[in-house]
Amino acid sequence: MIALLIDTSRSIEELKGDRWPDPPSDSTTLVRSVHELRRRAIKHLTVEDLRRLIAQDVGLRWLLPVALDFLRETAPQEAAAGWYDDDLLSAVLTRRESVWRNAPELARHLDETVRMLTDLSPCIQRKVDQFRTALPDVL
Which of 87, 78, 74, 67 is nearest to 8 (CA)? Predict the structure, then answer.
C-alpha cells in the first residue's frame, strides 16, 4: 500500500491548506462538483469521485496513491473477469509526463499494476502504450 501516509480522514482542501471560494452560480456541473469534492474527506470519495478529481489534476499528490492502491487491490479480480476498460485507470494513465517524473515510484507502481491486467480494451491499451513510451527511463 502506497497511500499509508495519507490522512484520508482529511479533505484535499485541508491537506493542501487552500480553501477555494464557492464557484460562481453559473458554473458548470463539473466545476461545482470539483469544488464540492475538494471539501470531502478522501476516505469518503467514491471511485468516480477519484476519477473526476484526478482527470482535472486536482489533489494528485494525495489522490494518485489512493487510486493506485485501489487499482492494485482490484487488478486480480479485473484480470479474472476479462475485458478491462476502466475510467479510473484511464484518468491515472493520462496524467502529464511531469507528474510521473516527479513521482517515479508511483509510475513504477502503476506499470506493475497494469502488467497484472489481461485483455485490456484497445483504448486502455493505447493509453498504457503512451504512458510507457513517455517514461521508459522511469519504468
Answer: 67
Question: CA-CA distance, 85 to 132, in Å (whole number)?
Answer: 18
- Contact yes or no for 62/12 (Cβ under 8 A): yes
**Nearest 5°: phi and psi at 40?**
-90, 140
**Is the distance from CB of 57 to CB of 47 less than 8 angstroms?**
no
Using 70 as the pLDDT threshold, list the residues of the chain that sit under it: 82-85
Q: What is the rounded CA–CA span in Å between residue 46 and residue 22?
A: 22
What is the rounded CA–CA span in Å between residue 33 and residue 60?
16
C-alpha 8/C-alpha 101 separation (Å) is 24
Read off the pLDDT of residues 114-133 as tens digits, 9 standing for 90 and up.
999 888 889 999 999 999 99
Q: Whole-prediction pTM value? A: 0.93
CA distance 31 to 18: 16
- Fill in the amino acid letter for 60: L
- Residue 10 has what DSSP assignment? S
What cell numbers appear for 86 in the block? Answer: 476502466
